[in-house]
Structures are given as structure tokens and as C-alpha cells.
Fold each of these.
Amino acid sequence: MRVVLSLLLLALSLPVLAKEAVPAADDPVLERRVMKLAAELRCLVCQNQSLADSHADLAIDLKNQVRSQIREGRSDAQIREYMVARYGDFVLYSPPWKASTVLLWAGPFVLLIGGALVLVAYVRNRQGRVVTTELTAEEHARAQALLADGDRQ
Amino acid sequence: MNRFLLPFGIFLVLAVFLAIGLNLNPREVPSPLIDKPAPGFQLPQLHETARTLAPQDMKGKVWVFNVWASWCVACLEEHPLLVELSKLNLVPIVGLNYKDNRADALQWLQKRGDPYTLSAQDADGRVGIDYGVYGVPETYVIDKEGIIRYKRIGPVTPKVLDEQILPLVKRLQG
């Protein structure tokens, strides 16, 4: 009797588990587009996650927003523009080229080239400083003797 | 001596950058809405749901637009300040009750005082998205023409109110 009862309770609890699965895949093509776009957009509540990764309330709202706009037939560019108009370039993981982002995009290359130039200059400068001196005949003989000495051991 | 000067200089520059970086608040993302018209909406009022509220209703006035919710902990922090501000009668404060339960919101206001001249209900957060809200509370100053002039993310502090919001309001009203 107890077994039956517990099985019954267990069966009743199954729908509770089922809640996790959000109505994701009624249209897998659309859902793929939603996720692709959401992966390019930053969740502003949890700044180092994309909308796709985040389960924050706002992220879910914004994903729904993306979904409904795709259904309305808007293009990816239009949806990106919609987000930027509200949250700024910061919402894009790949911000556009403009005056305020030049340092962001060009900075690493400037540093790389700068580093290479410093390296080249340093190496050239060092080459100039290495002094080569000819051995005198006496020193040569002594070196030869030392080497021969080493060979014997 | 000269050998160490260059690395030390580079170190100093990096240290200054780090210090500046650490003092910036990463949550304060500059809003693209500054100097843009306040997004339109037509929402039911919180107290009388049969009546609606739209930004056009405030045209001709400088107003403060405050986004809040009863579930928002940081809103508690700024609330006494808003109540105080409302008593000064310097500027109308319009509340946007963001993704909240109406009963909770009304109870919250009853308990802590209602600083809002008018309150709108944004139950599904759609208007919040149009205003680029991502961390309640958020506060906007909107001018007579309905242009957003200022946005504060996070609770309003006495310092922010005295040094930024009130001088701006005064200037816009003048």
C-alpha cells in the first residue's frame, strides 16, 4: 500500500519537473536565430554573460523581445539597432568602429607594433655595442694549449 | 639609473590607468537616450487603473521620472530622499512601477510614503525596455520639450540630488 502511494505521489510530482523546459522549440529555425542573436548581445544585469547564457529576468524579457521581433519579420540588423538605441553600444559584444571605440579596436595592434619597434630598436642598439677584438698571437697560443690540455683528460 | 626610468614610467602609467579603472562603476553604462525624446507610452495609472498616463501629459514641465518596484531592495535606500524631495515641491516626480504586483506596490507606498505626483504601472516591463532600464531604481530628468536630459542608474543619493539633479532641474526650469 505504501509503495503504491509513494509511486502515486512520485507520478504526481512529475509535471513540476517539466516546468524547467521553456516553450523553446515550437519553431527550431526561429529559436536558432533567437539564440544566435542573443549570443551577440550582452546581458546588462550580469555584464559578462550574453543574453543567451543569462537567466536574469531582463535577459528573458529581451530574448522574448528578440523572438517577437523576428516573428514580425524584422531583420537581425534592425533588432541589433533596437537594442543599441536603448542600451547603447555596450550591449553589443562586437561594438562598431567609431570615434569612441577606435582605442578599443586599434589599441592591441598599436601596442603590438609599438612593442615590435621597441624590440627591433633594442636589438639593433645592442649589436652596435658588442665589441669584437682580435686575439694576439700569444693569446692564441695559450688558448690552443688550454684546448689541447682539455682533450687529454 | 636611466635604465630604470623607462620601466618605472611605464609602471606609473599602468598604475594610473588601473586606479582610474577601479574607480569607475562598470554598472553605469552611458545611456544612448540622453538628449533624445523620452520614449512614448500609454500605461494604466497605479492608483486608478482606469486612467492612463503618457509622457505627453507632462509636456511643458520639467519632471523627474523614477523607475521603482516593491521587490527592489535598492529602492528602499533612495525612497526617503524622494519623499523629502516631493515635499519641497520643486519638481513633479512621476513613478514607473516596474514589473511589480499592483497590491504589493500600493502597500509599499502606503507604508513608506508616496512621493509620486503620478504613477504608472509597467507590469510586463515593456516600457522599461524602451527606457533602457536594467537596474532598478533608475531616475531620469526630462525637460519641458520631453527630452531626456539626465539618467541615474541605481539609487539617488543626497550628493547626486544636490549636485546633479536639482541644479539641472533648476537650469531647465529657468
Amino acid sequence: MSIIQEKITQTDQLVSLFEQNREILNQGSSPILNRIREVSIKRFAQAGIPGLKNEDYKYTNLKAAFEKSYRQELVQESGLINLNEVYKSNIPELDAHLVFLVNGWFYSGNKPGSELPKGVVLGSFEQIANEQPELIQNYINRQAGLSNDPFVALNSAFAKDGFFLFVPKGVIIEKPVQIINLLSSEENLRITQRNLVVAEAGSQVKLVVCDQTLTSVSYLVNSVSEVYVGEDAVVDVYTIQNHNNQTNVINSAFYRQQRNSVLNTGTFILHGGLTRNNLKVTFNGDHSEANVNGLSFSDKKQHTDNFIIIEHASPNCLSNQIYKNILDDESTGAFSGRIHVARDAQQTNAFQRNNNVLLSDKARMQTKPQLIIDADDVKCSHGATVGQINEDALFFLRARGIGEKDARMMLMNAFAHEVVQKITIESLRERIDELIEKRLNGEIAAKHELTV
Amino acid sequence: MLTIKNLHASVEGKEILKGINLEIKAGEVHAIMGPNGSGKSTLANILAGKSDYEITEGEVTFLGEDLLELSPEIRSRSGLFLSFQYPVEIPGVPMISFLKASVNEHRKYKGLEPLTAGEFLKLMRSKKDMLHLDTELTNRSVNEGFSGGEKKKNEIFQMAMLEPKLSILDETDSGLDIDALRIVAEGVNALKTADNATIVVTHYQRLLDYIIPDFVHVLHNGRIVKTGGKELAFELEEKGYDWIKNGNEQ
């Protein structure tokens, strides 16, 4: 009984925080967002923070994360950022259109506009929702609003800012757009971030999102992104997470693809505390393609949960998923990949693979591939493996004179490389290779410990 | 170079080697023959340092050192080479970077500077020419998608790159067509000097038509039951292993 009471308490606390601050939340926000707020807080109040009995959250317990006390910035507070700190922190330096967000707020010092092609809008979600509501109104909450996830509802209730990117019809942004999400606070901080990307018909854009903590306090991030991929558009989204051990993240990303479009995503979790990634792709038109990949490293007591849904709602589409995890110490991981092929989605090709390497006896991985097929002319496959480092390969390398540590490193790099090589931005691919090497050498963890 | 004295080894409590004695000197080629399950591959793997076996008795000295005390990588760097019966595929590890790491570890052990990329490529080219290999093998991941013959050629290529003092060829002829067998055997012969030694582990006499042994040992039931010159291989081929098995039981 006590468990149920605690659950009510945490949920109620958040609901009353909303009630008490309704005016502040509504202030300066677009009426479109404020309408969504009211519906969403009701949905959240009803659903509550999910416990382990919720099938979708069976392997990821966020109770402890929500029990801590946090400060929350209901209006933008963060001022200047120390760029020296940023560049010491392993964020890939790329030739890119670069913008910063600090604690979920679009940084006022950003000047991304000058080099972007004409008509492209990159800026603060809050500001654009106010100034150019016509750009967001057809897209905002179109996907997220259909979700039953309580954290998505919670995000919609509190969301004020994040980034917004609009790529008009036929426009190709050649250089990647790099979004750096910095978390910087001296006290525990709860962050709500809302992002929206609209890539109109025939447009192309590559996004690199880097999540980085700059201090060692506990952060609780609840971020929702909606990405609209128009007809014939090509959108790539790569996320590199490098958070401290005390940080808990719920990332929900919704992709809607129109016909003939291509989506490539890669989620790289180098370091973190507890990470839950919800990712949903909906094929809303035929002959579209989605390549959805992920790679994560965890050690100590870290936890990573990738919860993927591919909704084949239209015929002749192709989806590929490869998710890999390397788990050490007492870390745990979960993967759930649901492919749903609707009745009319004939000629669907849907493939999914989840491979995991456990480096210690205490590391645990839960994997749950799911195929739900209502059409009859489809090609689908799924597979999952959980294993150790291949001992025969290790012996082979050692028998050729390569030391055990180096040989292990070689094999782990090889395991990771399949996901890395799918990155379509060459310079990013190289940087990720370097970061993985650092991660496997323990240098990234050491960096986090230094900041404590 | 290598001295094996009264070597006993077991796997999961089952004794596989029951007292092996063997002496190998520089410049010699030894063939170890025997029926399936006689312990040939176990002996090869133990010499290379595979940890699946428990050594219950005996000693092995390699170049004056207690071999059984050394890790597989130190054995390799000291000049011992095992050509695997089943070379493992390692997707994602490029052949070139693996081989460069391997060669440079050997150089480091000898107190030599690592090879530059240019020097390494030059060395690779010269060894390939020497073995008449095509260039394809080195552009891929280690053994990934290689045919059986390609894997064995690749083993001999690694042997050429590392120039070991003692090479152990574990069933290098198994699954090889006659052309591949010839290339492999010619490679082994080309690498032969007065300072190195070779152990050829094989089930069939055929390989010994190409790599002429100085000594032939017949392994049966964990022991060397017969030792002779190259003519012993012909005798075995003619009479079959039953001759040894029956002889051993009498």
C-alpha cells in the first residue's frame, strides 16, 4: 500500500506545482501551447508516474529519480555560458551551424541565422511559437498528443522552450546543424524541454544533438521532440549523450514520415545515470525508409532503456533497427522494439536487431523484440543476442601478440563499429570513434569524476 | 628450442594428454600425426596458451623459458606461432589494423621502433609477393566471409609477417583443395630457415608430400606411440591408423 501512496504523492506534487504556477507557465507562452497544457496536466494526473507494473516501464523505475527534490526554472534564468567549460567536455567539434541550449532554454547569445539558407528558421521554440505561430500550429503535439506516455503529458503541461527548426520546401542545409544541450546548475534541477523540427517536402537536414552536463548535481530531464519529415525529405538526427552519473533522462522523440522520405537516426549514450529513450516512427506515406540505430555504454549502476516503436501505417516502407549495448559492472539495460504493420501496409520490410555484450557477471540486459503484423505480404525479422566477449576471438588476437587489454578493446570497438559506420556525417563518425575509444579506456568516466 | 617432458593435460576432468615427450631443435620439421581425438589439437592449443586445459603434470621449455608460465601474447612475441585449425572470424576488426598492431607488439618486445604506415605497407607487399597472395584478404575484416582456403592462406601470411622461431600448423591442410594446399606448403617452405622450426599437425600424409618432415610422431590416446623418419608417414597412409591402434593395444 505504501508504494501506491508514494506514487500518488509524487504525481500530486507535480500537479500542484502546475496549479500553483499556472500563470507563470502561461505567461509569455503561445496560446497554442497553453491550451495543450490544460489537457496534458489532466492526462498526467490520471496516469501518474508509471511504476514497474506498467508494462512499458517494467524495466525502468523512475520512482527514485522523482523522489529527489529539484529546482525548476519556470522562466528562463540561465545567463552566460562559459565556453571554455563546454570545449573541455568532449562535445564533438564539427563544421556546423551551432546553437546552444542551457537547461532546456534556447541560449540568447546564439546567432545561427547568418549562414543558414534563406527561409530556414532555427531558434527558440517559445519565441517562434509566439512570433510565427503559423509555422508550428500544424505540427505541435500532432504526434506527442497521441501518446499514452505520462511523461509526454507531463512535458506538454510544463513545456515552455527548446529549439525549433524549420526547413522550407526543397531547401538543403548542407552543413550539419549542431544543437548543444548544456546542463549547468549548482543545485539539483528538473528540466522540461520541447523541440520541434519541420522538414518540408524535398528538404534535407542533418542534426547533431549533444547532451552534456557541466556540473555534478542531479538533473532530471524530460524532453520531447517532434520531427516532421515531409514528402521526399531526408532527415538525419544523431544524439550523443554524455551526462554525469546522477542524471536521469526521459527523452521522447516522435518522427512522422511522409511518402518517399528517408530518416536516419543514431542515439549514442556514452555516459549517464538513468536514461530512457522513447522513439517512435510513424510511416504516414508509402515508400519511406527509416534507419534507427543506437549504441550505449554503461558501467557502475547506470541504466539505459531504449523503447522503440515503428508504426508501419503505409505500404512499401522499409525500417531497419540496430541497437547495441556494452554493459559493465552492475549496470543494467533494457531494449524494447515494437514493429507494428497495419493491415493495409503491404510490402513492408521491417528488420530489427539488438545485440548486447555483458562485461561482468553482475550486468543485466532485458530485451524484448515484438512484431505485430496485421498485413499478409510483408518481410519482417527480429533478433536479439546477449553474450560475452568472444573468447575465441580474444585468444586469437592474444596468440598473435596483442595484449589482453588491447585485444578486448579491439573487439569492443569492432562490436560498436557497426553502429558508428552508419553515421552519414564523416567528421562526426570520426569523432564518435575517438569518443568511444576514450569511453572504453575509462577517460570519459574519469572526466565526470573530476568535476565532482 | 622446445622441450616437452611428461606433459599431462585434461579438460573437465577428462585426461587428454597422458605423458607427452618431445624435443625440437632449430632447423627441424616435425610432423605429428594421429587419428581424430588422439590429442593433436589439444597439444597445439596448450603450446599456444589456450586456457581451457588443466595441466596436471609435466613441463614445457621454450628457448630456455618455462612456456607454461607465459601468457599467450608473450609466447607469441617470444616467437611461437600457432596456425589455427579453425581461424576465427572477427567482424569489425580490419585485417590491416590487427596485423599492424600484432607486428608492432612483436617489434616493441624486441626493443624495436614501431613500423610507420609506409614501412608496414611495404613489408606487407613483400610478404604477399613471396607467398603469391592476392591483395584482397587484407582489405577486409579479419577472416570475415573468407573461404576455408582463404583463412588458411591468411594464417600463413600472418606467419610470414611475424617470422616466428617455432610454427605450429594445426591441421592446416584440412579442407584445402590441392591448389590452396600447394600455395600454403610453398609458403611454409619459403619461410623455412636453419634457425626456425616447424611442427606440422595433420591427419593425412598428403601435406607431407609438400612439407618434408625430419621426424614423424604418431599420437594416439594422449601419448606418442611411434616416432620415425618421413617414411613413417607413408607406412601410416598405407596401413591406416588401425595399425597403430591395434599395435598399441597389444
